[in-house]
Design a protein that fits this description.
The protein is mainly beta. It is built from one helix and eleven strands. It has a seven-stranded mixed β-barrel.
Length: 163
């Protein structure tokens, strides 16, 4: 009887062990003002002028990262309008638009991998973008830290040109 009890206990223990693995592939996420923000939609586009635009969306919220090429390197934000980051919230009654640009905001976008075989792009980002409505003293800026975009699919070259 003891052997049956031990055998059933061992069988129960082994059968209750499961591995729930959830892959986050592809992904676009970060900390927005120190609160976890994870997009439920993501896309990257290549423009005719070789700019890459990577977008992550979460409901009414959108983060857009723009870089001049898909080369593996660090792109510094706040210097010009070529490498830029922006955040917008289009929820009615809460309209907000923040961006970096020439002498505006700061941060960086680091491309760690561009896979030309699978046509995906990966990297990290962090930025502080300023509110386009300078009269909004309540929300003068938005900060994203610890941002990651991982294996986001890049659509083939489009006919649009990004400024």
């Amino acid at each position: 009887m003891k052997k049956i009890f031990y055998f059933l206990s061992l069988l129960f223990i082994l059968s209750s062990c499961t591995e729930d693995i959830k892959f986050n592939n592809p992904a676009f996420q970060g900390l927005k003002d120190n609160v976890f923000w994870k997009s439920n939609g993501y896309v990257a586009n290549s423009a005719t002028n070789e700019n890459i635009v990577i977008e992550g969306t979460l409901g009414y919220e959108k983060v857009i990262l723009q870089i001049p090429s898909s080369e593996v390197q660090t792109y510094v934000l706040g210097i010009d309008d070529v490498a830029m980051a922006s955040y917008s919230n289009t929820f009615p009654g809460q309209l907000e638009e923040f961006s970096t640009g020439e002498n505006k905001g700061n941060g960086q976008i680091v491309v760690t991998e561009f896979n030309s075989e699978t046509n995906t792009i990966s990297g990290t980002f962090k930025f502080t973008a300023l509110n386009k409505d300078e009269t909004d003293a309540e929300n003068p800026k938005v900060t994203f830290t610890e941002g990651v975009f991982y294996k986001v699919p890049v659509s083939p070259t489009s006919n649009f040109v990004v400024n």
